[in-house]
Write a structure and sequence with these properties.
Layout lengths: L2 E2 L2 E2 L7 H22 L1 H6 L23 H10 L16 E5 L7 E5 L1 H17 L7 E4 L10 H9 L3 E4 L5 H11 L3 E3 L4 H11 L11 E5 L9 H9 L2 E9 L3 E6 L7 E3 L5 E6 L6 E2 L6 E8 L10 E11 L11 E7 L4 E3 L2 E3 L1 H9 L4 E9 L8 E7 L8 H18 L3 E6 L14 E3 L1
Parallel strand pairs: 5-6, 5-7, 7-8, 8-9, 19-22, 20-21
Antiparallel strand pairs: 1-2, 3-4, 9-10, 10-11, 11-16, 12-13, 12-14, 14-15, 15-16, 17-18, 19-20
The structure holds zinc ion (ZN).
Length: 441
């Protein structure tokens, strides 16, 4: 096992027990560094002296959790980087900004070491998805400030592939570039190929004739929508993979799919310590196959903005901890939702994804639904609005049977009592991929 600056060579193939020992070594110096240099953690750890900051990673639960709102407040009070900047500002070599269009912008600072580590870990995810030396990949994400552009570019380069920094827009030029440079892979959002197909058809180009063998996507769960991946692959003749799951404040890209299966390989175990917690209580859950909860991440070797026990807000399920057929030891995850969308009904955690499963399974519905919560809770029942399939009137006998079936399924599959209100077909808004399933009034 060779390492440099905390980063282990090919860590995604190293036996997990070796990585655990390595993580433990890194944590011992990282906790000293954070304790000495991060004003935010000095405050959050409330006067804890170093001997009290757990030395063993297994005891990390003794430390409080930190969330995005705390980082926002820190940047608001201590602009521009917040008082969790643990390094001198002149160590900051790259700054990304995110979220500026929808709310307060967050400023993400990377030192030389942070940036190098980010590129190497991200490259593991892209490599798992099949990118490597000999490939020419065109990167079609927005390069303006956010990490998905420039920093993802560095991850693509670190795989050994040749990278074409295309950015967004100008699809005609993109299609010509793919053909003329012999591009073999495209990195873009899952919705972009549909735009390109339109333009290709106007130019008389069959997408499958372009010679792309790999479509690399991330950021959205669209690839997991039944039928979407297959349609993309047959139109383009490439393998479509989610090569890019990341948590902006922690690591740009830390998990990707491989050619053997579609779960995300968590490839950052040398520099990150992951935990899974019950999002309602904060209790730590065992990191083992089948466990679901909110992903909490701790940096083990971060210079500029190190985070300890950061709540990602992502609900994940650990699907496998044994090595994959691809040879990687990296444990596999599925990202199933956001903790903000979790509803607690009589102590049971309910996620929109599990509600979706039972609603779409019923042929009497359109598959559209909403959970409409009145007041702050606690809730005794799950208030569910379900849209009927075409041509089923709300006040019909059929509709009543559908409501009953869904109520029974909620009891059986989710272990909660649902109040099912039926809506006529077409009542709920359709917004591709981004529909708000939980409405709080
Ligand atoms: Zn694999």
């Amino acid at each position: 096992m060779t390492e440099r600056g905390g980063v282990v060579d090919r860590a995604d193939f190293v036996p997990l027990h070796e990585l655990a020992a390595h993580r433990q070594r890194l944590w011992d110096s990282q906790r000293r560094y954070v304790r000495a240099n991060s004003a935010l953690y000095q405050r959050v750890w409330d006067g804890m002296e170093l001997p009290e900051v757990p030395e063993a990673l297994d005891d990390l639960a003794a430390l409080p959790l930190v969330d995005k709102e705390m980082l926002r407040a820190s940047q608001r009070d201590h602009p521009p980087y917040g008082d969790y900047l643990a390094a001198s500002p002149d160590r900051v070599r790259r700054v990304h900004r995110t979220g500026g269009t929808t709310g307060e912008a967050m400023n993400l600072a990377l030192s030389v070491i942070d940036a190098e580590q980010t590129a190497i870990v991200g490259a593991r995810a892209q490599s798992a998805s099949g990118l490597g030396p000999g490939d020419v990949v065109v990167h079609c994400l927005n390069y303006q400030m956010w990490m998905g552009g420039f920093t993802d570019h560095t991850t693509l380069e670190a795989t050994g592939a040749t990278v074409v920094p295309f950015g967004v827009g100008n699809p005609q030029l993109l299609l010509r570039t793919i053909r003329e440079l012999g591009v073999t892979a495209i990195s873009c959002t899952p919705s972009y190929p549909a735009v390109l197909e339109q333009v290709a058809s106007e130019m008389g180009i069959d997408p499958a004739s372009l010679g792309l063998r790999l479509g690399l996507f991330g950021g959205e769960a669209a690839l997991d929508v039944p039928g979407f991946r297959g349609r993309l692959e047959s139109t383009w003749g490439f393998a479509a993979r989610n090569s890019n799951y990341g948590v902006t404040d922690v690591m740009c890209n830390v998990a990707g799919q491989c050619e053997h299966q579609h779960d995300l390989h968590f490839v950052g175990l040398d520099v990150l310590h992951p935990e899974i917690i019950d999002p309602a209580t904060g209790a730590v859950l065992a990191w083992q196959t089948g466990v679901s909860g909110e992903l909490v991440l701790t940096h083990l070797a971060r210079e500029c903005q190190p985070l300890v026990r950061f709540r990602t807000g992502d609900i994940v399920t650990v699907t496998e901890v044994e090595p994959c057929a691809c040879g990687r030891t990296a444990p596999r995850l599925q990202v199933t939702g956001r903790s903000d969308d979790m509803v607690v009904v009589r102590g049971v955690n309910v996620f929109p994804t599990s509600v979706a499963a039972l609603v779409t399974a019923d042929p009497g519905t359109s598959g559209e639904y909403r959970i409409v919560l009145e007041g702050p809770g606690p809730y005794d029942r799950l208030p569910l609005e379900v849209e009927l399939a075409v041509d089923i009137p709300v006040d019909s006998e059929r509709a009543r049977a559908i409501a009953e079936r869904i109520g029974d399924a909620a009891q059986r599959d989710l272990r909660v009592t649902a109040t099912v209100s039926l809506l006529e077909h077409g009542t709920l808004p359709r917004t591709e991929g981004k529909t708000r399933r939980v409405v709080r009034r």
